[in-house]
Amino acid sequence: MKIIPRKSNRPSTDEYFGLEAEAYGTSRWMARNQIQTTQKVLELLESEQIGGKITNKSIKSLFLDIGCGTGYSSHTILNSNFENRIIGIDVSLDMMKQCEKDSDLHLILADMRYSPFRPEIFNYIISISAFNFASAGAQSKNQMKIFIQKALNALENTLKNNARAGIEFYPNKIEEIFFVKGLKKLNFIGGLLIEQPNSKKEKKFLILKKTK
User: Is 143 a domain residue?
Assistant: First the structure.
């Protein structure tokens, strides 16, 4: 089987375990970047493409942080103007061990492609740089397509009706195509947003609202 090439500047999953996880958890640059990106994604959850302003932030909501890692994004959500509870999932126990202990933050060791949650439980789902690994382990284009679809299916399944998701990621071109095609099979409005395309500051987001 042909191995799918990856962008040379993108980390592998191996870099989120052991001493690498500890280095990640103590990096001020990484903390600042994760916090700023999470704040941006929270803003995009109120994009006009998926319904605009959220008027019921005072109502308790349940967030899922996919690929919560050291908890920078989760704590940013907890400090936002949403009245919320949050669950974080990650495949790396080493990363989660770096997370600051917080009674309002619940962590679960889980793969985004195999959700441990019952259907239609979350009001919001957020993910920062974790969906890059939706196709992790794929040994062919077809397997990559299957893995990405599994991640998208799990996303749709665990969101409540009219719930929203904001995902920041940096897929390669093949993955991007599979994400866009995969979303067309599901009950979402919104889609792929690219900011500052074809530049060093390019950012890619999936901004989604479940329609039924």
Answer: yes
Q: How many angstroms separate the CA atoms of 204 and 193, rounded?
A: 6
CATH of the domain at 82: 3.40.50.150
Encode the chain (212 residues) as per-residue pLDDT tens digits.
Answer: 333 444 445 555 655 555 566 666 667 878 899 999 999 999 999 999 999 999 888 788 999 999 998 889 999 998 898 877 899 999 988 888 877 666 678 899 999 999 999 999 999 999 999 999 999 999 999 999 999 999 999 999 999 999 999 999 999 999 999 999 999 999 999 999 999 998 988 999 999 999 97
Tell me the DSSP string of the chain.
Answer: -PPPP--TTSPPGGGGSHHHHHHHHT-HHHHHHHHHHHHHHHHHTT-GGGTS--S-TTS-EEEEEET-TTSHHHHHHHTSSS-EEEEEEES-HHHHHTSPP-TTEEEEE--TTS--SPSS-EEEEEEES-GGGTTTT--SHHHHHHHHHHHHHHHHHHEEEEEEEEEEE---HHHHHHHHHHHTTSSEEEEEEEESTTSTT-EEEEEEEE--
Q: Which residue range(s) make up the domain with 116?
A: 30-210
This prediction has a pTM of 0.88
Q: Is there a domain that residue 70 lies in?
A: yes
In a domain, 90, yes or no: yes
